[in-house]
Amino acid sequence: MSVGHRVLISHQQLMFLVYTLHFSATELLLPSSLAETGKSGGWMAPLVSFFLSAVPVALMLGLLVRRHPHLGLGALSHHLLGRLPARLLMLLTTLFNVGLTALCLRDMVEAIPVAILPVTPTLAVALPFLLVAGYGAYCGAEVLARLAFFFMVIAVSLFSLVVVTLLRLVRALHLLPLWDQSPLQLVAAAWPTTGWYAESWTFLPLAAMVDRPQYAGRGLIAGALIAAVHLMSCTALSIGIFGHSLVAHFAFPIHALFQQITIGEFVERLDVILITICLLGMIVKTATHLWLAVDAAQFALGLRNQRPLLPALGLAAVLWMLSIPNLPWLFAFSTTVWTPFSLCLGLGVPALLLAASWIRERQYRPPDISS
């Protein structure tokens, strides 16, 4: 709905959107990493990451929205930090979200040829995908939240079908948390997802759109929790059927999992349906980060019209994506560079804004004349 010129969403829509942003790429890419590092107990790592990064970031964002209702990241940072620091922060936010858009494009370039378009040139996959995501970013966050609802319903329903059809193949002994070194392997396995959930600091403009600000934190936490449980369930099912050693060698374990499904003799190749559903989720994720990048760049550059920014930032994301050589390099970059960078920003930016808010409140608090 809209109030005046401000578009508002409910905290349930925020939950759907946060779930999609956290889950839409992780189900394809992360189970193999979790199995490789965490061994048979790697399926528990998403829940560890949820408590390490998703919960503190969501709590801080929820508190900021409560204290400063309907103020996005740019307006809030300008109010609390001043004009120049706010513009610098929004430039950093722009680069961060353009980087996430580029990573999403690379994920799809790697995933789509596996199932439905083999031996397809990179740009032939990336450009049409970016055009659709760009249109989604142009439509705005409210439309993306509606699409996220459909993605969540379909993704949960499809996974329920997988559980019903493949549960008989699960070997419970494969899921016993046994580590060849120490239980700290679980923390190491949770490292990539910890950085992934820390990216939610950029969701402050989305949380600021919630019609009832007191429920924004609830929507952020609920969306992240459902995504973590879903990823944990997907990884557990993969390890339970294939074993952690085999899952660690799959590029896309969930894709291999769906290839095991046959219903009678007439429903096969559900892996194609999986990729199609993942495509919807990735469109929402890419479009949302592109929308966040445009929103931040508009504030940083002081522009009234954001339309020229959309194609420019989309082109920047494509060029960034082309500089990524392959999936192994991308994973190494994510774990060694992107995750610590994301974690520092995820915990640091909301904490900085909260500290500035508290200091500003104490400075302008009226004196107590009762005593």
TrEMBL record:
Domain of life: Bacteria
Main location group: membrane
Gene Ontology terms describing biological process: spore germination
Keyword hit for tRNA-binding: no
A Pfam family annotated for this UniProt entry: Spore_permease
Subcellular location: Membrane
Annotated GO CC locations: membrane
Transmembrane region(s): 12-31, 43-65, 86-105, 111-135, 147-169, 189-208, 220-252, 272-297, 309-331, 337-359
Mode of membrane association: Multi-pass membrane protein
Keyword Transport: yes
Coiled coil, from the record: none
UniProt keyword annotations, A-Z: Germination, Membrane, Transmembrane, Transmembrane helix, Transport
Membership in a protein family: Belongs to the amino acid-polyamine-organocation (APC) superfamily. Spore germination protein (SGP) (TC 2.A.3.9) family.
PANTHER family the record matches: SPORE GERMINATION PROTEIN A2
Protein name according to UniProt: Spore germination protein KB
Record organism: Symbiobacterium thermophilum (strain DSM 24528 / JCM 14929 / IAM 14863 / T)
